Amino acid sequence: MSTDTDTETGTQTDDSGGHCSTPDSDGEVAEEIAIISFERKLDTAREIVEGIGDGYDRIDVLEYHGDVFAEHWGEYDCFVGLMASGIAMRKTAPLLDDKWDDPAIVVVDEELTWAIPITGGHHGANQVAGDLSELGAVPAMTTASEVAGEQGVESRAKALDAHVVNGDSTVATNLAVLNDELGPVARLDGPRAVLVGDDVTVLKRNGDDGVVLGTGTVSGVDADQVLDAWKEALDDLDLDFADVDFVATGTRKEGEEGLYEAAERADLGVVLFEKETLEGFEGPSTSRSKELIGWPGIAEASAIAGGRDHDLAREKERYDDAVTVAVGR
User: Fold this and answer.
1) Which residues pair with 319 in a beta bridge?
2) Which residues contact 226 (CB under 8 A, 6 or more apart)?
3) How many CB atoms lie within 10 A of CB 280?
4) Which of 26, 78, 180, 196 can bridge 33 by disulfide, Cβ–Cβ 3.0-4.6 Å?
């Protein structure tokens, strides 16, 4: 009797039927940062540049003097203060105006023990602190959604390659995230007009020509298997990871470590679609998911749901008996 693993469901079956960033005033991403350092700490500043600099469009080192923050305010997405937090707080507090326009502030000590977001946690500071953890610093994040292990709406926007249009709304919607009341992001395609209240966060995509990698996997899939599958699917369309908006899959794949590791290595966000959403975007290819677990085929349905035109650039293909990939547009 032969066995076959369904990469859409992660379930093994046998043949008898038995039973996986622009610089932002509107949030989320820091791409241009400045490290402000005292002269005696410049070696550590250069170590930071060498360690994380490849991940940013611009990373400069500025020697500290009393007006350095004021002189360069608005020039960078994030300042990394290689100094005591009290100095950074006193020098930047009079400059702060609006969290959607102000640069993020992170402080780090000379021994790279702690990376502490002071302002703009959801607007680049948490991201930079997380990158500094690659050098050994512990990111001391205090934003409520991160403390609770939840994905705030700014993080969801980043995963969707979108930005928040109405920033004041995020107070209410992030509270809903903490209370597990927000639910999936609803999508409206235009041309349409929509009327929303103050407690509805509106996200708008940053570009208009990327593709979506709809992905199903077996449980316990290896990140290299996922990356290889994505690369093959994209190569067939003469595309690469720079052409991808995000990875799309079903909520039942939440916490699939290999999938998330692959997305992180490809610098892509992961968007999880609810079963009810995917049922409205079933793909043309047959899938055993419906029979086995009551879900539509995850790869094609999530690619279609996530694509701007709700269409497929490439139907699903199965790789290494572990990963199924469809490309949406």
Assistant:
1) 323
2) 20, 215, 217, 258, 259, 262, 323
3) 12
4) 78
Average pLDDT, the chain: 82
| 199 Cβ contact list (under 8 Å, min separation 6) | 169, 172, 173, 176
For residues 205 and 226, what is the distance between their CA atoms, to the nearest angstrom? 25
Q: Distances from the Cα of 204 to the Cαs of 33, 37, 189, 329, in angstroms?
A: 24, 36, 11, 16
User: In this predicted model, what pLDDT tens digit does every residue of 316-329 receive, in sequence order?
Assistant: 999 988 999 999 99
| Placement of tokens 């609006």 in the chain | 98
Closest CA relative to residue 212, chosen from 324, 298, 326: 326
Longest dimension (CA), the chain: 76
Residue 15: pLDDT band (50, 70, 90) is very low
> 217: closest CA among 205, 203, 228?
228
Residues 259/215, Cβ–Cβ less than 8 Å? yes
Q: Model confidence at 275, in pLDDT bands (50, 70, 90)?
A: confident
Domain map (residue ranges) of the chain: 32-142, 153-205, 211-328
**CATH architecture for the domain at 211-328:** 2-Layer Sandwich (3.30)
For the entire predicted model, the pTM comes to 0.54
